[in-house]
Amino acid sequence: MNARYPWISMTFLIAIVYGASFCLMYMLAGMTYSLFSQVPADQSRNISAIYYGAVFTVIPFAGLGLYAPARYMFRYIMHALVVAFLVEKGIIVFLATLLASGFPASWYGHAFPAAGFGVLCEEFPFYCTPYVWKYIGIGTLISAVSLYAGSLLGARLAQPSTP
To answer: Most buried one in 7, 35, 61, 141, CB count within 10 A?
Structure first.
């Protein structure tokens, strides 16, 4: 039986897989940061922003690339990039802005997206003010490359090996 709306189900699959990998990357980045830096992440934002940004940019998108169907690889890459961009830099920031509205305006403010970036900066250093726009611009380009690399790896793994 053929699915009537394959791109809608693919959108939900991408959003769920990306959301789950975002949570897993939070745990992984928190556990592994102390392996290479003696300074805590909240006391060295310039180093931790690069590390956390790289982890959250490369690994989840390379994992999403493994799901790429060979026939629609370019369409899938563009679709996954847009969905993940909207989930991470749209929905998550919007929910953080809603969370910020429960605090006094002097803490984070109440404006979207600045209040959301302020709340997220507490745990994710790449959302802090000097780094967030670089993460949105450069991080999106790097995530597109890692999504493409993951899809190439997925296509390579799907091919049967010849002895």
So the answer is: 61
